[in-house]
């Protein structure tokens, strides 16, 4: 299950996030979203856990809790709606 993790401190690293979620089960991947121009964190990311029961446990345990001084949001990631820019027309 892919989890959305929001309102993260900008200083959070992928290793720190992996360590936090490892307490609830196996973590397949972690990705923090960064600004494409500055490379700085946007304050959210995604954690993928192969076991849905463990992922649910992580959501229940971590959602709305204090993480490095900020109240984080953790929930099941939703697919992007609409997906990006409309296609350009070629003439």
UniProtKB/TrEMBL annotation:
The keyword RNA-binding applies. GO terms for molecular function: RNA binding. Residues 1-79 form the RRM domain. InterPro entries: Nucleotide-bd_a/b_plait_sf, RBD_domain_sf, RRM2_NsCP33-like, RRM_dom, SLIRP/GR-RBP-like. The keyword Lipoprotein does not apply. Keywords: RNA-binding. SMART domains: RRM. This is RNA recognition motif-containing protein. It comes from Inmirania thermothiophila. The lineage of its organism: Bacteria, Pseudomonadati, Pseudomonadota, Gammaproteobacteria, Chromatiales.
